[in-house]
């Protein structure tokens, strides 16, 4: 069984837990997730099955959407509700939705983030959360991420005696930490803050309406045709890449991973990757040869005989 299973991950489970359960339910070895969701976070977690595991990294790189809730007034060690208190400052100013909208709009575009200490980013071969658990603070590499859109949910806005909470919808690119974004929103407002809730609402082309829960999967796991109705094809995992339809003659060479001349109809910039397609099926992902001008070579061959 090959394809992408859009799973709705429930809070309290790790992404690895989900992969383990899917592997066990479907009795498959080749199962992989497409980027971790923190245990406290629920939402869309595409699971790659069989041949589709080859495109897992491309789903990870694709855009994602979230609905988050930020609490303004105090910050935590983990930047979310599960951490210990770090700083507290009562919100002593009356805020209105229009002012917060202006703050949120300032984050649209390319922004710089520093990953939280409690994250899976590696520094010197070790995950940041491993340092954090030992009480060791290390210098964290900043990264540039993209916020495509961010909008407050107007009826979620609440101002209490010394804090503010509101929810927002955000669409973002690879590597964005919504926890860190919540902290940055607070900083822009002049207060410590943390992310109090988070749900991933979409990943690549997959949304909540496409998803199946683990409990639902358990009921149909032995009915392959039922399971297949939930699957997205492997091609959905590379939907963000440029496509090029090729002839049968070229397809045979592509299936064998051949180095080829750069086609005149190459649809991408020279530093981009292109999916070679035959009759609607993705055969391989190619890129320009790094050392031989005018040639292209496979990044990954997707076709299996």
Automatic annotation (TrEMBL):
Gene3D superfamilies: Pseudouridine synthase. CDD domains: PseudoU_synth_EcTruB. Transmembrane segments: none annotated. It catalyses: uridine(55) in tRNA = pseudouridine(55) in tRNA. One of its GO terms (molecular function) is tRNA pseudouridine(55) synthase activity. Its EC number is 5.4.99.25. Residues 23-178 form the Pseudouridine synthase II N-terminal domain. The keyword Transcription does not apply. One of its GO terms (biological process) is tRNA pseudouridine synthesis. Keywords: Isomerase, tRNA processing. Responsible for synthesis of pseudouridine from uracil-55 in the psi GC loop of transfer RNAs. Belongs to the pseudouridine synthase TruB family. Type 1 subfamily. This is tRNA pseudouridine synthase B. The gene is truB.
């Amino acid at each position: 069984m090959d394809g992408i299973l859009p799973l709705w991950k429930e809070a309290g489970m790790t992404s690895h837990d989900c992969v383990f359960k899917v592997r066990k339910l479907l009795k498959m070895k080749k199962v992989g997730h497409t980027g971790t969701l923190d245990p406290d976070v629920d939402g869309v977690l595409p699971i790659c099955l069989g041949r589709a595991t080859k495109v897992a990294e491309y789903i990870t790189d694709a855009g994602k959407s979230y609905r988050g809730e930020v609490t303004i007034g105090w910050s935590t060690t983990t930047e979310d509700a599960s951490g210990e208190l770090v700083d507290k400052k009562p919100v002593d100013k009356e805020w209105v939705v229009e002012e917060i909208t202006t703050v949120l709009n300032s984050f649209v575009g390319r922004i710089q983030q520093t990953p939280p200490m409690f994250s899976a980013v590696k520094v010197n071969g070790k995950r940041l959360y491993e340092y954090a658990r030992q009480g060791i603070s290390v210098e964290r590499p900043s990264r540039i991420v993209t916020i495509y859109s961010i909008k407050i949910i107007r009826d979620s806005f609440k101002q209490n005696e010394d804090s503010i909470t509101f929810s927002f919808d955000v669409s973002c690119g690879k590597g964005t930490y919504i926890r860190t974004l919540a902290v940055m929103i607070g900083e822009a407002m002049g207060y410590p803050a943390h992310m109090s809730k988070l749900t991933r609402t979409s990943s690549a082309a997959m949304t909540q309406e496409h998803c199946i829960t683990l409990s639902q999967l358990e009921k149909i796991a032995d009915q392959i045709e039922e399971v297949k109705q939930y699957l997205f094809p492997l091609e959905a995992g590379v939907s963000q890449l440029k496509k090029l339809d090729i002839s049968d003659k070229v397809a045979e060479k592509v299936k064998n991973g051949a180095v080829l001349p750069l086609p005149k109809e190459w649809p991408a910039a020279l530093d981009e990757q292109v999916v070679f397609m035959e009759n609607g099926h993705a055969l391989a992902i190619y890129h320009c040869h790094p050392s031989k001008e005018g040639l292209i070579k496979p990044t990954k061959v997707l076709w299996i005989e």
